[in-house]
Amino acid sequence: MIEPAREIPLIDGYDVIVGGGGTAGVLAAVAAARSGARVLLLERAGFLGGHIATQLLEHSAGWFDALGQQIVGGLPERLVERLVEAGASPGHVRDDTGYTKFRVPVNHEAYKSIVTAWLVEAGVEFLVFSPICGVLREGNAVTGVIVENKSGRTAFSAKVVVDCTGDADIAALAGAEFHSDPDNVTQPVSLLFKVGGVDHRALLDYVEANPADFKLGLDPRELRDQPFVNLWGFGQLLKQAQADGVLSFARNELHYAGAIQEREAVINLTRHAADATKAGELARAEHVLRQQIMEGLHFLRRYVPGCGNVFLSATAACVGVRESRRIKGRYTLTDEDVRSGQQFDDAIALGGFPIDSHDSRGPSMDGAEHVRRAYGIPYRVLVPNTIDRLLVAGRCISAARKALASARITGTCMAMGQAAGLAAAIAARSHLSTHRLDVGELRGALAEQGAIL
Ligand SMILES: Cc1cc2nc3c(=O)[nH]c(=O)nc-3n(C[C@H](O)[C@H](O)[C@H](O)COP(=O)(O)OP(=O)(O)OC[C@H]3O[C@@H](n4cnc5c(N)ncnc54)[C@H](O)[C@@H]3O)c2cc1C
């Protein structure tokens, strides 16, 4: 059918609109507002924070390279400091698996409050429960977005729009081009869950007795007396549970992020292959993954030492997406760029997390490669090649699949968010095309905000 045309209110006067108040979006909005822009942040969920909050992430990672050099600073690091001050994170702690050097455990509930206060302090205006469902365009330039929420349908215009929706929803609505793979495979979607009532002493006894079943970056005895433990393994137990019919799905390993004092752990076990841009597939994933959570809980209670009395204390708020749309930008970050630690004159951030690629068809990873040295993320991967006055940041940048499997990590997404927000503010101020931005000025402004380039 053809939807009838109708008049809707238009609210203007914004320099920058950021779509999506998640990992990258919060940083984009704060960075733009701090450089003097009038910023509106639009979020579809009822709260801000994105995947760190909705998905109960094990920790935020991507802050250090394989050599132990810090590669993300600036406003993302200010956010870590705020979390630490509020008692919502211990800051950068050692990664026991050796997969990455350090990681940042985060209290997910406090995270929502802390980022919201930070945005308000920076002068960012925001709306929640406000999915972006349309764009305003003049020629090839995006001039605003349309939102449908409790107040009805409203258009908002701005000089520059930043798409931090994860799925590149704004770019898709604007008619941007996307990378596609012949078999249309993406990494699987998941629902993390949290259990309480863990007896960590018994669990760590088991790890010490069975070190071969774990990827350990240290002597397991060093796990004792630590407030946070990070474990990757349990393959033997998972195999047994599948053979016994307790688990209906095959998994070679699970990820366990434990908080000892709280007797809690976040469990990353569930997997389902889905196209996260299709509503029907998301609904199916919601059903399948929630069944997997219940099987996973049963598995923990029956097979894992120290978990006999655990209870389900939280589940992710919605299906977690590792990969969906990737824009075709003015440059595409290649797998080789990431593997070789490529540097770029227009780098606006650094990445260094391993290529972390989960297999949607198999029981494990189809890639877990260490990145030897930090690679640059060029400004051009944020710029859709056929659309002006629109930037993207987060997991929807212009990148090849394995390259994104590294760059999608939260620390890197935050650094990209800061860069996209500042770039948008500069373009808005100078009335410049986002395609012709003075990247030297952007890099200078990033350095002033403490970013590591
Ligand atoms: C299961 C799982 C485990 C992971 N584990 C880790 C980990 O341990 N450590 C780590 O660092 N990273 C981890 N990651 C990766 C990381 O969480 C994501 O890649 C990263 O958070 C992506 O950031 P983003 O800003 O692109 O998206 P998000 O943080 O998802 O933010 C996107 C925001 O946009 C909003 N939005 C979407 N569409 C619209 C719309 N149309 N209108 C308005 N708002 C919209 C969303 O609600 C959300 O708030 C994990 C990911 C998954 C799925």
What attributes characterize this protein structure?
single chain; 453 residues; alpha+beta; FAD/NAD(P)-binding domain; 2 domains; seven-stranded mixed beta sheet; 12 helices; 18 strands; globular
What's a quick, concise take on this entry?
The relative contact order is 0.18.
Describe the structure.
Helix 1 packs parallel to helix 4 (108-122), helix 1 (23-34) packs parallel to helix 11 (410-430) and helix 11 (410-430) packs across helix 12 (439-448). The radius of gyration is 22 Å and the shape is globular. It folds into 2 domains: 10-63 and 107-180 and 323-343 and 377-448, FAD/NAD(P)-binding domain (3-Layer(bba) Sandwich), CATH 3.50.50.60; 193-315, no CATH class. The protein contains 12 helices and 18 strands. The strands form 5 sheets. Strands 1, 2, 5, 6, 7, 8 and 18 form a 7-stranded mixed β-sheet that branches. Strands 10-11-12-9-13 form a 5-stranded antiparallel β-sheet. It has helices at 23-34, 51-54, 74-85, 108-122, 169-173, 200-209, 235-243, 279-303, 335-340, 401-407, 410-430, 439-448; strands spanning 10-19, 39-42, 93-94, 102-103, 125-127, 132-138, 141-149, 152-163, 193-196, 228-233, 254-259, 264-268, 311-315, 347-351, 355-358, 365-369, 375-378, 390-392. It has 453 residues and is an alpha+beta fold.
